[in-house]
Every structure is written in C-alpha cells, then in structure tokens.
UniProtKB/TrEMBL annotation, chain A:
Cofactor dependency: FAD
Domain Acyl-CoA oxidase/dehydrogenase middle: 136-229
Domain of life: Bacteria
SUPFAM superfamilies, per the entry: Acyl-CoA dehydrogenase C-terminal domain-like, Acyl-CoA dehydrogenase NM domain-like
Annotated stretches, region: Disordered: 30-53
Domain Acyl-CoA dehydrogenase/oxidase N-terminal residues, every copy: 16-131
UniProtKB keywords: FAD, Flavoprotein, Oxidoreductase
Organism annotation: Sphingomonas agrestis
Name this polypeptide is given: Acyl-CoA dehydrogenase family protein
Keyword Repressor tagged: no
Automatic annotation (TrEMBL), chain B:
Protein name (Swiss-Prot/TrEMBL): Acyl-CoA dehydrogenase family protein
InterPro entries: Acyl-CoA_Oxase/DH_mid-dom_sf (IPR046373), AcylCo_DH-like_C (IPR036250), AcylCo_DH/oxidase_C (IPR009075), AcylCoA_DH/ox_N (IPR013786), AcylCoA_DH/ox_N_sf (IPR037069), AcylCoA_DH/oxidase_NM_dom_sf (IPR009100)
Alphabetical UniProt keywords: FAD, Flavoprotein, Oxidoreductase
Cofactor: FAD
Gene Ontology MF term list: oxidoreductase activity
Membership in a protein family: Belongs to the acyl-CoA dehydrogenase family.
Domain Acyl-CoA dehydrogenase/oxidase N-terminal: residue ranges: 5-118
C-alpha cells in the first residue's frame, strides 16, 4: 500500500480557523522543507540546521503550534483538539512538518503540566514548546527493565539537595540531552512508594554518559552514571515517594506516542518502501501479473490488511477521544500492534530482496536496501522499549480486562 | 465504536437490551432442541419485524426505516452476541439486491412486505461448497431459471429468492420448479440446497456487477454478526477465567492465559474498526467498497476463528460439553467463516484490487 487510506473531510465548522492556519503556514513554511520531518530527532544526534529550518522552528516555537494543545500561558498553542486536528490536516496538505519534537514534547511536558509546580512549569514548558531544550529519560537500570520498580539509583536527602548515586541505562539520546527526568529511590524499605521523580541537568558534576552500540550499528541509547550528583530539592516533581504514580503516567504518554499517536507510524508506513512493487521486481510476476510467489503474496496481503486495520483503529480511537481524558490503557494495545507491524514489514523487506536486502555498507547495495536493513535491526527494539510487548500484555490483562495480579 | 447518530445509538441500545432480555443464548438452544422446519426462531423474527428491523434497509417510501448498513450492522452485532436465530441477515442481503437492481414495480411489490416481516428472502449464489461467484452455471431462458444452489441460508423458508445466474441476479418468487432439500450444518441453522428447474424468474438490473455489490453487502453484514459473536465469546471466556480455580489460584492470575486474552482483545479492536469501516464505506457510496469489505470479512474471519477456538480451549472440559454454550459459538463461527468468502478468498481479492 503506497498511501494511507484517506481521512474523510467532514463538514467544517472551523472554516475560519482553517483559513487562518492556511494563511499563516503559507507565510511561514519554506516550501524547500516540504516532506522532511523530525521523526528521528529523539534518537538521532543534533544536526546542523539550515537557515530555513531554524526559521521554521523559531516561527512554530513562537506560535506555540509545535505543541498545539498545551496551554498558551506556558508557550503552547492553546488550541482545542478539533483545532489541532485542523492544523495537522493543513500541514499535511502542504507537506509541512512539526519541527518541535523529542521526549520533552512526547512524554515529559504532558506529565509536568499535570504534576509540576507553577515554578517548574514556567521554567521548563516554554523551552520545550520552543524546542530549545533536549530532555532524556532516566528510568531503566541494568537490574530494572521490565520490572522498573526495582530500580536502585539512590537519592539521599541532604537538606537543600539530593545526593544521587547509581546508574541508568537505555537513556535515549543521553549524549545529546540538556536535561534528564528520572526516577530515583528515596526509600529502600518500600518498593513502589519509595520512588521519587527528579529533574537533573546533564552538565551537573558527576553525570557521565557512555553510548551503547546496538546490533544496527547505531548508538541512540546510553548508559548514564551518577556519582555524588547534587540535585536541588526544587527539582523534585510532586512529593517524595510519589514518583511511581507520576512515572507511570509518563509511561502512558510514552506508549501513546510510540503507538503512532496516529501520525508517526502512519507516516513511516506511507513513506517507506512499498512491498508489492518491490516483490514484483525481485520475485517476478506470473502470467496474470501477480507476484510470482503465491505464499509471499498472501503474506504481503495479510500484512497490508493488518496495517489498514491498525490505521483504521488509530483513527477510530482519535474520534472516540472526544471526551478526552488523555492517554488510556488501550494505548498498550496499539503499541503492540504498531510494534508487530513495523517488525513484520521489515522482515518482509529483507526477505523480498534476498541477500541484496542484507547489505551492511559499501558498494553493490541500493541506498534504500541499506536503510531498510538497518531499520530492520533497530526495529527489534520497538517491542522491547517503552514497555515490552509482554509488559503491555500484562497492562491489557489487568487494566482493561480486570484479570488478577500474577505475582 | 464509530461515531453514531442519536438514532443509531438508540437502535443499538434497543437491540442490545432486547437481545439480552428476550433472546439470550438459551433461546437459541431452545430453537435447536425444538428443531422447527424453518430452522429459525419465529417468535423472535416477529418481534424483530415489529421493531422495524426487517425494514432497516428499506426506504421509508416502501414502509422501511431507510437507515443503511451501519445501522443494520449495529443490530446484527447485538444479535450475534447471543446467537439469535432469525433470517435478518439473509433477508437484508436479498433486500439490498432489490434496492440496487429492482425496478419500480419489483420494489413496490416486495419491499413493503419485507419491511413488515411477511417475507423471508434468501440470496442464492454458490453452486458448490465454496464461495465462487465467478463459477455460475445457472441459466435463464424465456424467463425460466434452471440451476442448483448449495447451502442457501434460510432456503428452507424463503418466500423470495434472489438467484445468481451467469448474467446477473434474478428474482424467483414462486414455488413452481423450486425444490428445497434441508442441509443440516453444525450450526443448526437453515442451509438448504435449492434446485430450480424452469422456475419463473425476473431479472434485476445490473449484470455481474450487481452480484459483486450484493455479495459484498452480505459479507459486510455477516462481518458485523461475527464481530458480535467474537465479543460475546471473548467476554464469557474472560468471566470464566475469573472464577475457575486450579492449583489453588483463579485461572485469570496466570500470565500465560492473560497474554492470550490480551492478544484476542487486540484483534477484536482491529476487527471493530474494519467492520465499521466497511459498513460506512457502503453507506457513503465510496468507490472502494469491495476492498473495505474484503478487509472486514478476512479480519472478522480470523478473529472469530481465534476467539471461538480459544473459548473452548480455555473452558477446558466443560467447554467440550453440549451443556455449555462454547460449542454453539465454535460451530456457528465456522459456518459464517465459509459464507461469502473465507479469509484466503478475501485476501486474494484484496491483493488483486491493489494490483499485486
């Protein structure tokens, strides 16, 4: 499937707003940037922006439309859901993309808006809305992955500050981040209730970052070491011991964004290499013009159908959030489906090309094939990060189906 | 859930309430045990007609509600949940043929009676045990139709047949030249072999395209019924796991079982999206109806297959007994999976429609 199914245009009660958006985009979006995006900004290092990119980011940051539904008091767009959808549609129409992204936007910002103090919101939200500060996530530890609540990184109360010692791992983009939101242990006698949510500047003395090289050859994750790191008390979000509650809320936002949020996964599938023409090229056609390998053809059809069902469900979910309480447990369902589809698609791309699909680097390979091979390897992470598929299944079983705790 | 109008929401809630109060699975069991000649629940059918459901698709001018396929699907979904045995789906499929291809006179003659519930109608296409609308040998000469149709749903009691011949669809309304032989399938519903030998037939407008349009609508309606069945089978299984104790623990505390349930719920979510998508595509007259229907039917087939199989397995021994309802869902599921195209048939068509 080359394009995602079209979204029907309903009667437009927001006509006036739509033309305002249209005018503003025409005035500010440089057509030379059409079709680019920031999809990988969370896991790729900062690159040199062109003057056009800088200007586009500044304009969107100023307007608050990179985070359209956040309150305008803190630099957000202050738009309703419906207005934000109009903005998204109008941007898609002209190939414009959101230059404001990363973990601050996807996970930390929404959580801080809910749990942060007035001072914390005023300090951090506007910078996230402008895209000027990069955040990383200090959650996982070598001994606390799926069982996150067994984390050990310890923060000792020293009166005006906490003294943090320990290690974090899988810190996405840690080597490029300015700040880190993290879960630390403030009480060893309790499991969930002994956890606190802290904000730490990455240039604080004692913070050390070491990139981890993955099977795909890239290093989007880091190990992060904390040795006698002083974090001011003012950087604590919520009460001491409330970190697990806040942290879980943030994970819901993370899952929501990783499940595609309606756009990221859709874009990936829409812009990626289409399977069927590739299969015809490599496998050939039968006398009726079908992919010559009927078994492969069937599997491609099955995958494309699942993909349509996924996109239809994301659409349905977004229609249903009219009442809108923020992310719900059903995001676990969509995270799992999205992960399965990304991985299935990658496997099909490799298989269709044969050995030409397994190139690592150098001559003799098409650029798309090399990109797809790396994506295939990196894609193995999508069913592991953000809560593995197994953890999501536990969430579904307990929170949606009301099944019992098995521990 | 699709975004519903107020009217549709009321219709769905009413159907659900009626099915739960008046037509629980126990009513299906009673019908099966009594085995009436029509193989459906006549009281339930009369009640449905009184509530206007037989006329959901029928335009208001002909005494119906003119509500469309999403509305029909909402009702069939609720009936599917409780395995309600009435000829609503079959009659609706035949009704869609009249609406799409009937002349003024044909519509005026049949639609009011269908809307009133006085006529059970059946769609007769296949001439073998597998869905193969391209392989039709039935012929019509001088207004007389001859051919044999296998496994016609509600063929035992239908007053009106919509019959596929090589050049399109025909109405057969009399019993002269029509022989019905009951074919009992595992689901205990009506599936008759119907032999036409020079039966009087009237052509509907539209040729072979009409066959595709009508079987697509039949498949979409069945998908909605299957969605309801899958949801009910899933919910009952989930309830059972919360009560059954083994090894000193309730089954719902075992992670291996939780993950199987999570997988099924995931498939159910996807199925609801594509079933509603297909019904909406028909209602809004989109050009890609066939593609949306294939997506819906293939997905509903796979999901109901999975859920009905797991329902028996997760109930253990009790699920194997006739006393329990699990077997009803399993048996009906396989029949509906085979009707109007199995998953492989619809995947193949999906690929063709997409050019590969």
């Amino acid at each position: 499937m080359a394009t995602a199914p079209e979204i029907d245009a309903p009667a437009d009660p927001l006509g006036a707003f739509r033309s305002e958006v249209r005018d503003w985009l025409a005035a500010h979006f440089p057509p030379s940037l059409k079709g680019k995006d920031n999809a990988m900004s969370a896991v790729e290092g900062p690159h040199e922006n062109s003057p056009e990119e800088d200007a586009w980011q500044a304009a969107m940051g100023e307007k608050g439309w990179g985070v359209p539904t956040w309150p305008s008091d803190y630099g957000g767009g202050g738009l309703s859901r419906a207005e934000a959808r109009v903005l998204q549609e109008e941007m898609a129409r002209i190939g414009a993309w959101n230059p404001i992204g990363g973990m601050g936007v996807m996970m930390f910002g929404p959580t801080l808006l809910e749990y942060g103090s007035e001072e914390q919101k005023s300090e951090h939200i506007p910078a996230i809305a402008k895209g000027t500060v990069r955040w990383c996530q200090g959650y996982s530890e070598p001994g606390a992955g799926s069982d996150l609540a067994s984390l050990q990184c310890f923060a000792e109360d020293k009166g005006d500050h906490y003294l943090v010692n320990g290690q974090k791992t899988w810190t996405s983009g840690g080597q490029w981040a300015d700040k880190c939101f993290m879960l630390v242990r403030t009480d060893r006698t309790k499991k969930h209730e002994g956890i606190t949510f802290l904000l730490c500047d990455m240039d604080t003395p004692g913070v050390e970052v070491k990139p981890i090289r993955l099977i795909s050859g890239s290093s989007p994750f880091c190990e992060t070491f904390f040795t006698n790191v002083q974090v001011p008390k003012a950087n604590r979000v919520g009460a001491e011991g409330q970190g697990w509650t806040i942290g879980k809320r943030l994970l819901q936002h993370e899952r929501s964004s990783l499940s595609g949020g309606g756009s990221a996964a859709g874009r990936l599938f829409a812009q990626g290499t289409p399977l069927a023409p590739l299969a015809k090229t490599f496998v050939g056609e039968d006398e009726q013009g079908r992919i010559a390998d009927p078994e492969l053809r069937g599997r491609i059809a099955r995958h494309e159908m699942d993909l349509r069902a996924f996109l239809a469900t994301l659409r349905r979910a977004s229609q249903e959030v009219a009442s809108n309480q923020g992310p719900s447990a059903t995001t676990s369902i969509m995270k799992n489906v999205g992960a399965r589809l990304i991985q299935e698609r990658s496997e099909l791309l490799i298989e269709i090309r044969g050995l030409a699909g397994l190139g690592w680097e150098g001559e003799g390979f098409e650029a798309d094939a090399l990109k797809d091979a790396r994506a295939w390897l990196f894609g193995k992470a999508v069913s592991i990060y953000g809560g593995s598929s197994e953890i999501q299944n536990n969430v579904i079983a307990k929170r949606i189906l009301g099944m019992l705790d098995h521990q | 859930m699709a975004v519903l109008t107020e009217e549709q929401t009321m219709l769905r809630d009413m159907a659900r309430e009626w099915a739960d109060n008046e037509a629980p699975v126990g009513a299906f069991r009673k019908m099966r045990d009594a085995a009436p000649a029509a193989f459906y629940d006549a009281d339930a059918w009369r009640a449905q007609a009184e509530m206007g459901w037989a006329g959901i698709l029928v335009p208001e001018a002909q005494g119906g509600a003119g509500m469309g396929y999403l509305s029909l699907g909402l009702v069939l979904e609720q009936l599917g949940r409780n395995l309600v045995a009435t000829p609503l789906a079959a009659t609706a499929a035949a009704t869609s043929a009249l609406i799409l291809g009937g002349s003024e006179a044909q519509r005026a003659e049949w639609l009011p009676r269908i809307a009133a519930g006085d006529v059970v109608a059946a769609l007769a296409v296949d001439e073998g045990p597998r869905f193969a609308p391209e392989r039709i040998e039935t012929r019509v000469e001088d207004g007389r139709l001859s051919g044999t149709k296998y496994f016609v749903a509600e063929g035992d009691s239908a007053r009106l047949f919509v019959v596929a011949a090589a050049d399109g669809l025909y109405l057969v309304s009399g019993d002269e030249g029509v022989t019905r032989s009951a074919r009992k399938l595992v689901d205990a519903r009506s599936h008759a072999e119907v032999r036409f030998e020079g039966a009087r037939a009237e052509k509907l407008e539209g040729g072979r395209d009409l066959v595709t349009q009508v079987t697509d609508r039949a498949a979409a309606a069945l998908s909605a019924e299957m969605l309801g069945m899958a949801e009910a089978a899933f919910a009952q299984t989930n309830d059972y796991l919360k009560t059954r104790v083994q090894f000193g623990q309730v089954l719902s505390s075992f992670q291996a079982l939780q993950h199987r349930m999570a997988k099924m719920l995931t498939e159910l979510e996807l199925t609801r999206s594509v079933v509603e998508g297909a019904l909406e595509a028909i209602d809004s007259g989109r050009a890609n109806v066939s593609q949306e229907v294939s997506l819906a039917k293939a997905t509903a087939n796979e999901t109901l297959h999975l859920v009905s199989r797991e329902m028996v397995q997760l109930h253990g021994g009790i699920g194997m007994t006739d006393e329990h309802d699990a077997g009803f869902y399993l048996k009906r599921a396989r029949v509906l999976e085979a009707m109007w195209g199995n998953a492989a048939w619809h995947r193949d068509r999906f690929a063709r429609l997409n050019g590969y």
